Amino acid sequence: MHVGRKAQKREKKAMSVSLYGNLFFVIVEIVMAIYTSSQAVLLDAIYDGVEFCMLLPSLFLIPLLYKPSNEKHPFGYMQIESMFVVVKGITMTGVTVGLILNNIEIMIHGGRKVAFDTIAWFELFAFFLGITVSIYLKYKNRLMDSPLITMEMEGWEIDSIASFGMAIAFFLPVLLPFPWFRPITPYLDQIITVTLSIFMLPTPIKTVITGLRDLFLIPPEEETVDEIKETIEPVLNAYGYKKLYYDILRTGRKLWISVYITFDKDLVSITRFKIVQNFCIQALAKKYTDFYFELLPDIVFTTDDEALTNHIVNQSEEVDQNAKFAD
Fold first, then answer.
1. Distance (Å, rounded) from C-alpha 312 to C-alpha 319?
2. Is-contact 134 160, C-beta < 8 A?
3. DSSP state of 111
4. What start and end residues bound the annotated signal peptide (predicted)?
5. Residue 303: is its pLDDT beyond 50?
6. Alpha-carbon gap, residue 162 to 71, rounded angstroms
7. Fold that domain 222-297 belongs to in CATH
8. Cα angle at 194 between 56 and 133, to 5 degrees?
9. How much is the CA Rg of the chain, to the nearest whole Å?
10. 130 touches 123 (CB < 8 A)
11. At 229, is the pLDDT very low, low, confident or very high (cuts 50, 70, 90)?
12. Cα 137 from Cα 147, distance rounded (Å)
């Protein structure tokens, strides 16, 4: 499926908004982390800093992702996106694990008190700003279905949920000014950071796994394969095609779907094939924005076929010999 220049510009514009939003957050969070000495705010600052560093080169990747496939690049440049997603996921996983270990070490050494009310109001502001950006990205991505924008949108959503949880947690010393709660306050910042890190960790790990599947041309997750089959099979069954074999791959945002049909008779109608293929493409286009689909006859090589092939080869050799004698 061809995606025009307008989609490319829309995607680049949406990614630019996410880029500038990340840059703003990084600057403000670094200042706030220094001012309050909070590990939780530092977690946000490092996370958003890594996001910004990884997001910057992705803007230059977008034009490559829209280039068509050719003989040198049969899958186009889509695997560059998969590689980028893997690198980003590994980086985020490493940063998150490092912060967990660092905060456990701080807790072992007696914890650290911070300006809870200042951090709470800051995180509340971050929550509303994050929600605004994620809604904007979701609106822009509704027609493009871009993995890069989806990944950014998920990042902003996680940040928003985390900021809201942090705001509530940091308001606790103000809301619970009781003697029994005071011994916990030096560890509150670290407890929040470790909890948030554990909450965030599955997302980059899942990103790495998905990206590696795409890089090594392993079929997508079972849910995606089943959805494709459920979309195509009603069309093929309506035309009496029952013996089907699927070859499904994903590179970045693009799905490559090949369906092989085994015939009972030695007869294939090209016109009928084209009609059925177009119906399948129309059905898939309702669910996927960027895919390649082909419908092919599956050639099963039997003993009779082998005998027929040998007969044809022998005839060809006889023709060649007769042509030489004629010369």
1. 11
2. yes
3. -
4. none
5. no
6. 46
7. Alpha-Beta Plaits (3.30.70)
8. 35
9. 28
10. no
11. very high
12. 12
- pLDDT of 113-161, one tens digit each? 788 888 889 889 989 988 998 888 888 787 666 766 777 787 788 778 8
Q: Are 255 and 285 in contact (CB under 8 A)?
A: no
Which pLDDT belongs to residue 2?
A: 42
Residue 3 has pLDDT above 50, yes or no: no
d(CA 45, CA 240): 58
Break the chain into its structural domains and give their ranges: 5-216, 222-297
Please state, rounded to an integer, the average pLDDT across all residues of the chain: 79
Residues in the chain: 327
The candidate with the shortest Cα–Cα distance to 64, out of 252, 285, 291, 216, is 252
DSSP character for 258? E
Say if strands 254-261 and 291-297 run parallel, antiparallel, or are unpaired: parallel
Which CATH code, of 1.20.120, 3.10.450, 1.20.1510, 1.20.1260, is assigned to 5-216?
1.20.1510
CB 205 within 8 A of CB 127: no
Q: Which structure tokens are listed for 198?
A: 């554990």
The two structure tokens encoding residue 21: 């939003």
Tell me which residue of 126, 117, 113 sits closest to 47, measured CA to CA: 126
Judged against a pLDDT cut of 60, whether residue 311 lies above it is answered with no
Place of tokens 């809201």: 164
The residue assigned the tokens 């005998």 is 307
- Please provide the distance, in angstroms rounded to a whole number, between the alpha carbons at the two ends of the chain: 52
**pLDDT given for residue 73 in this prediction:** 67
DSSP assignment of 73-91: -TTTTHHHHHHHHHHHHHH
Query: What one-character DSSP code corresponds to residue 126?
Result: H
- Contact 230/207 with Cβ under 8 angstroms? no
Q: What band does 284 get if pLDDT is binned at 50, 70 and 90?
A: very high
Residue 254 β-bridge partners: 251
Stretch 207-227: mean pLDDT, rounded?
85
Q: Which of 110, 127, 90 is nearest to 210 (CA)?
A: 90
Q: How many CB atoms lie within 10 A of CB 283?
A: 18
